[in-house]
Amino acid sequence: MSVKQQHTDKNKLGLLTSTSLIVGNMIGAGIFLAPAALSSFGSVSLLGWVISAIGCFFLVKVFGNLSRIVPNVTGGPYAYTRRGFGDYMGFSVAWGYYIAVACANAAITVGFVSALSTFIPILSTSTLAAVSTGLASIWLLTWINNAGVRVSGGVQLTTTILKLIPLIAVAFGGLFFIKADNFPPFNNSGTSLFEVLSNTVTFTMFAFVGIESATVPADKVANPQRTIPRATMLGLTIATIVYIVGTVSVMGIIPPEQLQKSLTPFSDAAVVMWGPNARYLVSAGVAIAAFGALNGWILIQGQLPFAIAKDNLFPAIFGKENKKGVPYVGMFFSSILISIFMIMNYNKGLVDQFKFLVLLSTLSVLIPYLFSTASYFILRTRDTQLTTMEWIQCILLFVISFGYVFWAIASAGQKTIYYGFLLQMTGIPFFLWMKAKRSS
């Protein structure tokens, strides 16, 4: 390796920071509420975690293989879909994913402000204070991310470690406080096993959104063909252990009738374990989790329009980078969009619209997964030298990963799927305009 290459790699994301990007983006503030939401389904929700983890394992294998087949390409699911299906499908996937991440970032910001209100009570009573804090966090992290991928990667690594401390403490410490009588009945939903599993798998699947994070800024990752697959698998493993063990502990500590009504299940479990002051430790973890996730997703959202612009499917201005190699135009535009969506949550007339956008965004993130798995099959089978065993492995990996994501999408509900389709279609005029502009 040349001296120049070594210097370049030092300014990129390594295995540790790439893993923290994945873990940090997956583990946001939502996981701290998950045990309460899942308890209404019953103990079967633990099986939902296992199924989602297995499905994501195959999805991770798909992304790992794609990072080798299409190396050093920014854009992740967008880049893979474009290689497999062409410009329009690549653009359509990126369009939905981009808006989805903006909505998710706004929701994460709201979660961050809510967590901070434990320490700063005025944030729960003053709309001006809440909005100002939310905007300050968005633009502080935008400034940090504009300092370069190494700086934002350092913030991501630090916040990921800090957010894992309370989660791991409650998850593994809680195993010593479990009471078997506290676990809810196996199926508490009043529906069939298949239906309740569909609901829990859809819910738990959303907790794994972010496993593709290291593939999006691939050209900013050192030795991406090796680092991305390893970081993605490591990130999935860490998140899965925290999710499952944490849910088991919280369910085993708090009685089901109390857990279903809890707004702070991890905090309530910590209080049982260590006393009233432990609530502040978990609240700090929630705030750090949200802050770290927002940092990671702002990094991702700056890279996506940059990748599309480089392929002449987005205005060229989004392809500009600053001296640190950061696509600053796309990042600033994204942060403006996040700010608008976040403010919607604090406007009484727009709260319902904001909640709907967040619901819609969850589906819009799954669609790129679906097309990525299909692109993997297309790109892999273009290799005419595949052996019979390689063909079998390719088909099995595609069928399992595609089927898993398709199941999660189908379980999202007719209304969500309907509006998700409309969201994808809104990008058509913009695509046609860009295509006409490129042809002229």
From TrEMBL:
This protein's name: Arginine/agmatine antiporter
Superkingdom, taxonomy of origin: Bacteria
TM spans (from-to): 12-34, 46-67, 88-113, 119-141, 161-180, 192-211, 232-254, 280-300, 325-344, 356-379, 391-410, 416-434
Pfam family, one: AA_permease_2
Family designation: Belongs to the amino acid-polyamine-organocation (APC) superfamily. Basic amino acid/polyamine antiporter (APA) (TC 2.A.3.2) family.
Function: Major component of the acid-resistance (AR) system allowing enteric pathogens to survive the acidic environment in the stomach. Exchanges extracellular arginine for its intracellular decarboxylation product agmatine (Agm) thereby expelling intracellular protons. Probably undergoes several conformational states in order to translocate the substrate across the membrane; keeps the substrate accessible to only 1 side of the membrane at a time by opening and closing 3 membrane-internal gates.
Subcellular location: Cell membrane
UniProt membrane topology term: Multi-pass membrane protein
InterPro entries, per database record: AA/rel_permease1, APC_superfamily
Listed PANTHER family: AMINO ACID TRANSPORTER-RELATED, ARGININE_AGMATINE ANTIPORTER
Keywords: Cell membrane, Membrane, Transmembrane, Transmembrane helix
